[in-house]
Structures are given as C-alpha cells and as structure tokens.
C-alpha cells in the first residue's frame, strides 16, 4: 500500500506504531482487494476515479474487516448506476438523491455488497435538518466534509494508494477524535456529528479532541434541529457499543444529553451534606456496566448486546429526582419512583421514535425492577413467585439481570445477602417451572368451557370469569378441571345478576 504524494504522513506518531498500523491495514485490505480492485478497474476503464473511503479504511488500520464497502467516485450518480448495473448481480438507487448507488454480487461463495457515492461538498442550511447535496470535483474535497479525520482516509483504486490529507492515521494511532476542518464549522454543517463523537468514544474507545469537546459544549443546543430518528439511531449505536459508559459521559458532560436525553443528567442529584443517598447518576452508569457483564452469548437467555436490557439498566431510576423526599428521621425516600420512571421513559423513548415494543419493554422492566426487594424481607408464597414470573412474562430473563445489576453497594455482606436472596428466588422459580407450566400460565378452563358451564354467550362476563380463574391459578397453582369448575360455579353464584 503506497502513500499518496499529498499525504502528510502521520508525522506525529512514532514510526513503530505507524508501521504496525500499516501492516494490519495491508493484511485486511488484501482480503478486500479482489473485489475492490476489480471495481476500481471498472471505473478506471470508464475514465473515473474510485476510492475506498471512511469506515472500511479506518477499520482496516484497527485490524478489523468492515462488513460494508463504501466507495467514493468522480463519476456522476447516473454514470455510477450504469457501471454497477454491469458489475453486479443486483443494484439499487434508493440513495441516488444523495449521490449513492448500491450493488451486490456473489463471488467465490460470498456476497459482496458495495455503495458508491459521488464526491460531495454538502452544505447545511442553519434552519434545516437536511443537507443541501452538492457534488464535488476531488477526493480531497470529499474527505474534508467528513466527520472526523480517522474517517477522512481513503485508498485509491485500483492502485491501492493511501490518501490521508488530514493526518487521520496519526489520530488513529493516538486514538483521538478530531475534525478535518474547524470543529465549530463541522458541527454547524451537521450537528449530528456531535452525537457521533460520543458514539465513537464508546464504540472505538477514542478520546475527544479538546477543540471538538469545547465546540460541542458551546453548540450543544444545535442538536435540536436534527430529526429524532437520526438522534435515536446514534443513541442506539452508542448503547450497543462495547463501552457505552464513556460515550454517555460525553453526552452528559458536554450538555448534549440535556437536549436528547435530559432524564440522564437529571440523575445528578445534589448530594446532601450528610450523604444520605448515593449518587444516582454514577449508580445508573455502574448498573449499566454490570448488566452488560450479565449478557450472554448467542445461545444464552439474553444475547448481547441487548438494547432493551441496557436502556432499562441506564434509565431504571429516572423517576428518583421527581420523587425524592427527605424524611424526618434523616433518611431519603423515593416512593413509587419505579412507576414515575416508567412513565418518563415511555414519554422520552416515544419522543425519540423508538418502536412500540422497545418502549413497552423498557418501561415495564423499570416498573418491575423493585419487585424483588420484598423477597428479602420475608418468605414469598408460591403465589407471589407465580405472580412475579407472570408479571415479567417474556422479560423475566432480562428482569433477573436488571435486578442483580441494581446492587452497587460497597457493603460486601449486604451484596452477598442480596445475591443469595436472588439465587434463592431463581431456584424457587426453577422448582415451580418443573412442576407447573409457568411460561404459559393459563386457567384450567378456557373461554369455551366457561361459556358452556355458565350457559353464557361471548361477552365481557366471560372475560371476568376467565380473570377470576387466572387469579385462582396464581394463588393455588394448577387445579383439576373438576376443581376449577366447582370454583367457577361458586364464584358465579355470588355475582350480581
């Protein structure tokens, strides 16, 4: 892999570090080379430039193979579409308005998917959420419009010439996020880049450049012009990254979270002079990390990264600021914060355009996260255990992990006591599962049988009867059909006509 004459190198990094990065990149790019070089030859034959750019180049230097191949070209979208139609088995133009054409082909038993975008020099209207697409003339100009220098590196094809006009390789070696142009200009052009900065801190483990951090602090409010869907997508990527805590801290410390997830910085409650309660914000970040540690592999009960579990772990205490009370005995209470928190979470996630299932699941976990604490105060009946399982439903495995993660006490004896109590609860659930169908908790009689026994037609009364039998099932466990019939008839006899 050759360096372009215009490449300033990455002079600030040590030769050994740069040599190691280049060796890794060469190995990865060699794997990609057959498809990439072939495509480069197709464009070159037609008189156009083509370069692999952005994430795939960055990931190559990090020793990772990127799933998608992103290219930029001097060809117009129409010219690109014509070339890809000949090169690929399929092609699509859904991004054509932004200069992007996609294509796919199968070679050597593997699917190769590419996206090729015409050189761009986008500009953003300060009052608009969308860029005004303008096509550029040069690769260097295209690279200058990108978010960070580590994403502003390219490899020209088919010659595999490395182009790095903004010292992205040096920043990669130093694990630094820096903008290729002035940070204020970059973030003003596209405010979502501020969210992306936090995401890359979490995703790549990089540190934010001081100029970029200062610009975000000064411009945080500008994120409000970005659509909720785009903000949500960046937040999701941050949350499922390897180190979400670091990215979340960037959001909070720079003020971005005040505009996109204000419930999180609101957890930084003032610590009273007597230190009667823990730092809820730091507690929540620790719960998130502990929940991540309890995620499982693909074959486990909660395969990671699990967005629902992570959101619930982060946000489960957002109801505390609104419910905090200082008691006369010197204590602090947060009565019903789980109920208040569930409502706040539903409102926030809906505002961020999360899907209904995610909103419902995260809110429900928040509502249930304190339920276990009554278990350690006394012996639960089998009925209480059944209700715990039934109320959690398909969220039970996540609730197990959220509840365990919610213990951040430094008191070893207390931590061991809580862990032991939950071990005992899970053992109780396992025993009941073995003897009862907890996963499909149903009465012994179905709706048709209820109508036949009580001589009813379909209607609300049948639903009331079914609810009675379900409560009976939770209280007493499995009943025979005869026992359920007798109980139903006794209940019916007491109902007003």
UniProtKB/TrEMBL annotation:
Q: Which InterPro entries match?
A: HD/PDEase_dom, HD_domain, HDIG_dom, NT_sf, PolA_pol_head_dom, PolyA_RNA-bd, tRNA_adenylyltransferase, tRNA_CCA-adding_enzyme
| Keywords assigned by UniProt, alphabetized | ATP-binding, Magnesium, Metal-binding, Nucleotide-binding, Nucleotidyltransferase, RNA repair, RNA-binding, Transferase, tRNA processing
Which SMART domains does the record associate with it?
HDc
Name of a matching Pfam family: PolyA_pol
The cofactor required is: Mg(2+)
Q: What is its EC number?
A: 2.7.7.72
Residues forming the HD/PDEase domain are 276-437
Q: Which GO terms describe its molecular function?
A: ATP binding; CCA tRNA nucleotidyltransferase activity; metal ion binding; RNA binding
User: Which Gene3D superfamilies does the UniProt record give?
Assistant: Beta Polymerase, domain 2, cca-adding enzyme, domain 2
Mind listing the GO biological process terms from this record? Answer: RNA repair; tRNA processing
UniProt key word Nucleotidyltransferase:
yes
NCBIfam families in alphabetical order: HDIG, tRNA_CCA_actino
Q: What is this protein called?
A: CCA tRNA nucleotidyltransferase
